[in-house]
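Exercise (ungraded).
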Amino acid sequence: MTRHELAPTGTATLFQFLRDGRPRTRAELAAETGLARSTVAERIDTLLSSGLLKFSDKANSTGGRPPTTVAFNPAARVVLAADIGATHAKLAVTDLAGDVLVEEDKVLNIADGPEVVLREVCDRGRALLTQAERDETDLLGVGIGLPGPVEHLSGKPTNPPIMPGWDGFDVPAFVRGELGAATLVDNDVNIMALGEYRAHWTKYEHMILVKVATGIGSGLISYGRLHRGSQGAAGDMGHVRVPHDTDILCHCGNVGCLEAVASGAAIAAKLTEAGVPATNSADVVTLARNGSVTALQHIRQAGRDIGEVLATAVSLFNPSVLAVGGALSLAGEHLIAGVREAVYQRSLPLATQNLRIVPLRSGDEAGVSGAAFMVIDHALAAGQVESLLTQ
Amino acid sequence: MTRHELAPTGTATLFQFLRDGRPRTRAELAAETGLARSTVAERIDTLLSSGLLKFSDKANSTGGRPPTTVAFNPAARVVLAADIGATHAKLAVTDLAGDVLVEEDKVLNIADGPEVVLREVCDRGRALLTQAERDETDLLGVGIGLPGPVEHLSGKPTNPPIMPGWDGFDVPAFVRGELGAATLVDNDVNIMALGEYRAHWTKYEHMILVKVATGIGSGLISYGRLHRGSQGAAGDMGHVRVPHDTDILCHCGNVGCLEAVASGAAIAAKLTEAGVPATNSADVVTLARNGSVTALQHIRQAGRDIGEVLATAVSLFNPSVLAVGGALSLAGEHLIAGVREAVYQRSLPLATQNLRIVPLRSGDEAGVSGAAFMVIDHALAAGQVESLLTQ
């Protein structure tokens, strides 16, 4: 289907000009786009009646001239965003500028399988829409992050290790059945990277975000765009081999994987072995905050191990920003200090001369924010936005 | 300077439609772009008089109707492309479709410094232009690849290890002084990656090209675009640490760098130590072709070592294509066999399920071809092409 079947030519062009938020008159738009004035007038009427544009000057009720300036209307539609983890989810309803209108944290168990988990998410999503005084017909789309590998194009998880029952499940079809809205899915680290980038780092072109929690993963931004890779598997650094000898067996079957050496789960196991009992990232963080020297030592060493692998990523990808997030990063500066130590030692001077190695700034909102932007960027792009005008 | 100062609105839009090579009538262009018919007629006249468009139907000399169909004219301008190595260069003049019109190989010594080398390149470039029956005023631009790190935005080499006298030299200013044309510069591996991708792999989105010669480097393609990184240093994998114990000292000061272990120079040194004298990649290739088992063993091990680092690159970047080129790859299948062995052993199944690990297909033309596309893509992009119409 070409775009001409969807909406009249020029509509998308006009809308892309206006997405920057600056109000314009029809005459200005004709001058900027080169479109005929009559075409501009017609297309603007279509965009106004779709709600994607609004008048930005008020009609003078005492009899002045009618409103002439139009602007993008972020309130035209809403997005339901869900950042689903192993044991909890964060849900939000945002407007088309990505601003959160309402949000909610929810306890769940990913191992209950896709139907149970997604039905809960959709139920709570409906409640959030009501809370925001909107309904399902206002949905531009639904954006979902999952804690495992996802084939982004189909929205299906691919052999996710901690998600029994999810392999190959058609997440978009299920959610569309529940809420009637187009749904995009990606892994939790990618949406976190997108959210963090859009909130804080858009003046740079290239970023790597690493998430250190039960597992270890990363998200890559190239020229401001999420680099997903061919199977949507880009950024998967948990099973990269650490460059020092180790015989630690990973659940993937290889030895010396980063995740088997430096994840929250790995540190908890090492601490337990050293006589300091811990079962997960949260325990490790608590021990660190209570001043356990053994815990701090292990966190710092994990930072160095992660930094060794990130040094390779920095040499290959040459980002401006390397952001460190995830549950284990809550233990304070020890993790990132280890990362810095190894990255600066092993990367080429040219690749690190302007590199910023920083803690995640967006906190735990990065995921839902990124999930919302994933939907907004896709649906409002030229070639997509036309479909919103024929509904 | 906004684009409105350069050329009338709509010209770039029209030209981008026509860059696909398909001829169109003015009426078709008005329908496709939504531009007013009078605007289309004016802008097409401008593009025709610049030469960037041509009539694609012949006027009927016996009195038929005048020509009405216009198309992109790749012969409108030419590009001078130079792939400069340590001891030789390949030069070519191409048209705006990137097709080589004339080319030449040239012996030179990069250590003679930038002024000597670039003056030689410009002199031979002028001769090639004459051979192609064009002159300097026909140049769209000059594209140059250099065997060291280059800050792409400024076109200046940055601490290039094998290029004495080149650090910080303003290559574009010098070449513009000689030939009067805008000049873009990048490192040799990036232009090789771009040339190989555009010639053979555009149906895939993501590619890594690794060049194994005296040094080891790679070029990354993300969504069809060269990922250069923040300092133009992306793909620099020569100084990534190999993940097994080694005490080999690298010229960069670290130990265990890939380049110190697996480059052509490193293999030559190991062979010499083993009683099989060799001084460079070419010697190693000759030994391999003559059936030296020791040489084949070392090449295969180099392939494994390179593959260990590439396994990390594959996990992080998730390309569809991993192309292996450079002088050492001429030794036959042994290098790439070692690469395949390590990549398939160490990368995640998801990242390798559709991965193609292949020898470079473009041969030694990849570099000049990529240098030409670097110039063409830049100069004919919307926002740039307008400047060609005011000259």
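Further reading is listed at the end of the chapter. For now, observe: Chain A has 13 helices and 15 strands. Chain A touches chain B through 62 residues (CB under 8 Å).
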